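Explain this record to help learners:
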Amino acid sequence: AGRQFLIKVFNVNRSSWAKHEATLLLSADGIPSLPFVNATVVEGMSCHVFEATGYRCCTAVETAKAQMEFRVLLSTFSPSPDLVNAYVRSRTRSWQRLDDELLGRLEWLLGDNADPLLFDSFRAKLQRIRRFLEAMPHGIFVQDVRPGVLWINDQGGLALSHWGRWELEPLGVR
């Protein structure tokens, strides 16, 4: 049947996704992805090429069954220090977002339903929680594992074709 390729064309308003995806795929050996061939720009639109030979796109039923297996597989991948450094230059980490201001907004949203004692107790433990999250091993998290982006090969190996919104999070947080 010959070689097969998946060519992704990112709309101009999704160029940040393309760059984010390319950053991961160019520096993450062993990540469960369709083999990444190249990235380029054509008429202002970012394009990524993947080799899809030996793979087929999972059906909706297969995707639903395989999501947990894929997440476990992804959790075994350890991001390189270079990838971590590139990520933290442009993104806030989960423990950095968890602060007193966030708790204040949540308390305000709950209004009369907010339990002041519970919030005070949480605030007292906030620094310890933040240190715990920071010290946990970190991994790649992909929110949108859905039909059309999860692929399977003849041996049952899973691969993803869309990494535009990957995040680096403490394992188990999401």
About this structure: The chain has six helices and eight strands. The helical segments are 15-27, 60-75, 81-90, 94-97, 100-110, 116-135. The mean pLDDT is 90.
